[in-house]
Design goal:
- This protein is an all-alpha fold.
- The chain is built from 3 helices and no strands.
- α1 crosses α3 and α2 packs across α3.
- The N terminus is likely disordered.
């Protein structure tokens, strides 16, 4: 992706595509949300949010955290 292509809103799908293209990693939207929360970014309320999850989900691996943070920087979401 060229910097000129970043003219519209960075969706979760665009972030996932960027990480896949640049690092060859597949990242789940849960991991993107986790990194956004870590940086104190505003989050929308998910319509499918549950009060008590059925099971415990693993945290985002450190390598994927770095890749997602780099993508958020690329899209101008964090500095």
């Amino acid at each position: 992706m060229d910097k000129e292509e970043v003219t519209e809103k960075a969706t979760y799908q665009k972030i996932k595509d960027y990480v896949k293209e640049k690092y060859g990693l597949n990242v789940h939207t849960k991991y993107i949300a986790e990194v956004k929360r870590k940086h104190g970014l505003p989050m929308h309320e998910a319509p499918n949010n549950v009060d008590v999850p059925k099971r415990e989900y693993p945290y985002c691996p450190e390598g994927k955290v770095k890749a997602i943070e780099e993508a958020l920087k690329y899209f101008g979401i964090i500095i």
